[in-house]
Amino acid sequence: MKLCRYIDNLLFVLCLGAAQALHASDVVSSQNIGMELAQDIAYESVLACRKDGYSVSAVVVDRYGILRAALRDDLAARFTLEIAERKANMTVMSWSDSGGAVGVSGAPGGELDAACARQALENLSERIEFAIE
Predict the structure, then answer these.
(1) pTM of the model
(2) 109 Cβ contact list (under 8 Å, min separation 6)
(3) DSSP secondary structure of 5-74
(4) What is the pLDDT of residues 29-69, one digit of tens each?
(5) Are 52 and 113 in contact (CB under 8 A)?
(6) Are 87 and 67 in contact (CB under 8 A)?
(7) Among 41, 55, 36, residue whose Cα is nearest residue 123
(8) Quick one: which of 13, 66, 71, 129 could link to 42 by a disulfide (CB 3.0–4.6 Å)?
(9) At 99, is the secondary structure helix, strand, or coil?
(10) CA dihedral 28, 95, 127, 34 (to 10 degrees)
C-alpha cells in the first residue's frame, strides 16, 4: 500500500515536471530600453538641433514600436511630434537592430533631423552599449 502511494506520488511529480518543460516557451523575456535612457536620447536629440538653431521634436520607441519618450522643443510645431514618432517606428518596421529607435522632426530637411539623432546617440553611446550587452 505504501509502495503504491510512493509510486503514485513519484509519477505525479514526474508528470508535473514534464508538463512544465512543455510549457517552458510560454514565457518570453526580452531586453527593452529603459525610461531614463529613452528620455535622455530624446533630450540630447532636441539639444543637438537647438544648438544648430532648429526647434524640433524627438521621439524614442522601443523594439516593439511602443512610445518610451517624447519631447517637443519650445518653438517646434505641434505636428513634429507625430512625424518624429512615425520616423522612429519606421526604424522598428525596417527590422533595424535597435533596442530603442529615435525619430526627430522639425529641422529644415530630413538629413538635418537624422544628424541630430546621430549626435544624441553618439553622446550617449557608452550607456547604449552597456544597455544592449
Answers:
(1) 0.76
(2) none
(3) HHHHHHHHHHHHHHHHHHTGGG--------HHHHHHHHHHHHHHHHHTT---EEEEEETTS-EEEEEE-T
(4) 778 899 999 999 999 999 999 999 999 999 999 988 999 99
(5) no
(6) no
(7) 41
(8) 71
(9) coil
(10) -50
